[in-house]
Amino acid sequence: MAAESGGTLTFDMNRQLTLLFAAFEALLVVAIGIAIPLVPLTLLWGIHYGLAIDWTVFWRAAVDIWLVGHGVDMTVVLDPTVSKSLGFAAASTPVTITIALLGFSLLTVLLGVRAGRRVAETTHALLGTFASLVTFGLASLIVTLSAQHPVANPSLWQGALLPTVVFAVGLLIGSQVVSTKSRVVGPVRRWVLGWPSHVRTILATSLRGGAIAAAGLLTIASIATMLAIITSYAEIISLYEALHTEVLGGVAVTLGQLALLPNVVLWATSWLVGPGFAIGVGSTVSPLATSLGPIPAIPVLGALPIGDFAFGYVGLLAPVVVGFLVAAVLGPRIAGELRRRELAIVALGIGVAAAAIIGLLVWASAGSAGPGRLSHVGPQPWIVTAWAFVEFSVAAGLGLLTSARPERADDGFTQR
């Protein structure tokens, strides 16, 4: 009896420690995300405003920035003076901001991966994961409630849900990394292992190839963005100087641009795919032509291309080359397992997986950034998805045909 009582007590203590640890990990992710905008805003409150303004104004601003960074819709009522300076007559008309500053979402995913790995190593991994998600959701709800204000009003249900979904993605990735290292086979994996071998090969190759192709295109887009910023250094510095910000203002602008940088990379991805993107209604930035009207005074936008490109169509080769190379590498690995028509299914699967990943990310990068022309900023996700599917599927099909030599004929007999 004493041994059983001791074992039960130890089990309860381990469970309570897991719950506390998981909750702390979730709260830490929320605290880090909000602290990034809150620290410079608090310094601005103390140094520039001399503590004369209520600090809760800066707290709400930091929370609003964090929520917008996770795709939460923000309804803003412009001040009459600001509205007049921007040329908008109706100052009291609410403006909904739907664009996400994806740098905050990326940070939450990375911190979620770290939390998922740490929680998965505890004795009650499933319970800890659930506790971490619940804690993060409650924390998101509480900070969203604290940011409610007539001037800037974030969506309450989105504030509780969307950051939690982003955190859940990282948490799931982190926990899967640990389970893969420990070779834990879950019920879903056991179910998949029961499928016919050629079906598993088609599905695995399609998902793996699509993910690698999407990652490859995003890498090229990142390099292209870096080169554009480097070569447009003079224009970017000129825009910084035109803002006439002090040191703290310059730091705030730089942090805001870092939060926007993943969006810019995704816009570059849509540029490489073909349809391009817009910076305001009526504008277009694509490989073949660029037509820009008035744009926000954000220094990093000085890297945007101006005018037409004589060889802009070369950018369209990026997804084709990436899709071809990925299929060419994966082709020999599956050549002896699949028929030729099954290779065609794999090519379509790679196109679907890559286009779905690119389309989902591009959709998250676009939205409304303000009133008037700024009601549409970013790519058209459905058009980008359709273009990506065609380009990756065709390229993957050619790569598989040139690299894979099927050993199984369509009639089921082995070819010699």
From TrEMBL:
<dbReference type="InterPro" id="IPR045931">
    <property type="entry name" value="DUF6350"/>
</dbReference>
<feature type="transmembrane region" description="Helical">
    <location>
        <begin position="250"/>
        <end position="273"/>
    </location>
</feature>
<keyword id="KW-1133">Transmembrane helix</keyword>
<feature type="transmembrane region" description="Helical">
    <location>
        <begin position="310"/>
        <end position="331"/>
    </location>
</feature>
<feature type="transmembrane region" description="Helical">
    <location>
        <begin position="382"/>
        <end position="401"/>
    </location>
</feature>
<keyword id="KW-0472">Membrane</keyword>
<dbReference type="Pfam" id="PF19877">
    <property type="entry name" value="DUF6350"/>
</dbReference>
<keyword id="KW-0812">Transmembrane</keyword>
<feature type="transmembrane region" description="Helical">
    <location>
        <begin position="155"/>
        <end position="173"/>
    </location>
</feature>
<feature type="transmembrane region" description="Helical">
    <location>
        <begin position="343"/>
        <end position="362"/>
    </location>
</feature>
<feature type="transmembrane region" description="Helical">
    <location>
        <begin position="90"/>
        <end position="113"/>
    </location>
</feature>
<protein>
    <recommendedName>
        <fullName>Integral membrane protein</fullName>
    </recommendedName>
</protein>
<feature type="transmembrane region" description="Helical">
    <location>
        <begin position="210"/>
        <end position="230"/>
    </location>
</feature>
<feature type="transmembrane region" description="Helical">
    <location>
        <begin position="20"/>
        <end position="45"/>
    </location>
</feature>
<feature type="transmembrane region" description="Helical">
    <location>
        <begin position="125"/>
        <end position="143"/>
    </location>
</feature>
